[in-house]
Recover the amino acids of this structure.
């Protein structure tokens, strides 16, 4: 893929700001309209005045650096292939995006649920309800006992911010304010506050001297919205128009926000689930990033809102309901017809990303059975 990286246009920064405090405290019609426009045209925003202290963001990036500097054996002990819920560590080159191995190390965490056993895999094979396996337990390296509480505290802060942003989004799109938060109802045992599903990734991109190399291949995210913390080494790019990539420069104390497939389907393509990718750092320093995916209930389903606002999208690819359905149908290889099932969608992504996980192997075997 190294020779396939097209030219990146220089500045200006194409990512508009989302000022959380201003939009919550004194939202003007102009500011809400500008937000709707940004969701529609760019699909990436820089979140400022969000109330999460800069130390909290720096701390989660430090946690990423600490995890990946553990001994390789410590990391392998919590390898993702030892999890039936796709939680844990993966080496450089083990995760696949768009059929191509990424050039990064990964440590995946979710909301903590009771562990999933082999019996649940057999049951999933019998019923086809594979996505339920994703609601399982995390794996934590024994040598980093403080990691779990740090990460859980960060996830809680990010979930709260994500839900606040969804309320602002609904206001910007003239929808009932609880429209987007309505798919956050399921709660793991003992967590009355932690609704929906959630995924957090600690990522380390090794430096790559010489020709640019893809760290993560182009993709759109699968869920509702993503809040990304990065260190000050750049590399994230957005596909602003087909084949035209622009850098998203890092800025301390802010989050990069982007929208996933569910919001794109739900708004009939009005909110963009923009393609993005990461170019490996060309310096001698690795790059660390922490995307947090604010995901809905695993059993939530999505069909386009019946709203004249979303019937046609000026300035963007025109998506009428039929075209949106067709595009989404194609995107998911025909795996759904009437509605997009979040659980099926994210499960399919896990299988594609980690085809050597035992659950992926079991799923593949079940597809081959008559
Ligand atoms: O590392 C980044 O900056 C982005 C990673 C990403 O796009 C993802 O994990 O979905
Ligand atoms: Fe992404």
């Amino acid at each position: 893929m190294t020779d396939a990286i097209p030219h990146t246009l220089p500045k200006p920064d194409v990512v508009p700001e989302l000022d959380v405090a201003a939009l919550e405290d004194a939202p003007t019609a102009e500011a809400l309209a500008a937000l709707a426009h940004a969701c529609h045209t760019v699909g990436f925003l820089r979140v400022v005045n969000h109330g999460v202290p800069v130390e909290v963001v720096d701390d989660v990036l430090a946690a990423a650096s600490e995890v990946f500097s553990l001994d390789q054996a410590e990391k392998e002990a919590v390898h993702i292939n030892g999890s039936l819920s796709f939680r844990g560590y993966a080496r450089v080159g083990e995760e696949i995006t768009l059929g191509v191995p990424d050039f990064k190390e990964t440590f995946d965490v979710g909301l903590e649920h009771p562990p999933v056993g082999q019996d649940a895999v057999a049951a999933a094979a019998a019923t086809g309800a594979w996505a339920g396996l994703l609601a399982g337990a995390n794996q934590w390296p024994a040598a980093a006992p403080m990691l779990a509480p740090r990460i859980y505290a960060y996830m809680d802060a990010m979930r709260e911010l994500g839900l606040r942003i969804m309320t602002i989004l609904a206001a910007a799109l003239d929808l009932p304010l609880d429209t987007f938060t309505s798919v956050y109802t399921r709660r793991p045992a003992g967590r009355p506050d932690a609704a929906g599903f959630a995924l957090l990734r600690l990522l380390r991109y090794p430096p790559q001297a010489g020709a640019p190399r893809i760290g993560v291949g182009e993709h759109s995210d699968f869920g509702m919205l993503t809040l990304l913390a990065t260190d000050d080494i750049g590399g994230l790019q957005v596909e602003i128009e087909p084949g035209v990539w622009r850098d998203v420069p890092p800025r301390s104390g802010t989050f990069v926000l982007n929208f996933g497939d569910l919001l794109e389907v739900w708004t009939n393509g009005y909110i963009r689930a923009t393609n993005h990718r990461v170019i490996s750092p060309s310096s001698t320093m690795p790059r660390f990033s922490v995307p947090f995916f604010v995901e809905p209930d695993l059993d939530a389903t999505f069909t386009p809102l019946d709203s004249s606002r979303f019937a046609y999208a000026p300035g963007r690819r025109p998506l009428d309901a039929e075209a949106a359905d067709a595009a989404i149908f194609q995107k998911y290889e025909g795996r759904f017809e009437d509605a997009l099932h979040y659980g099926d969608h994210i499960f399919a992504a896990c299988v594609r990303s980690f085809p050597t996980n035992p659950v992926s192997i079991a799923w593949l075997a079940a597809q081959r059975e008559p």
Residues 1-11, 312-320 have pLDDT under 50 and may be disordered. The pocket of 2-oxoglutaric acid (ligand 1) is lined by residues 201, 203, 216, 221, 228, 230, 236, 276, 278, 289, 291 (CB under 6 Å). Residues 17-368 form a domain with the Jelly Rolls fold (CATH 2.60.120.330).
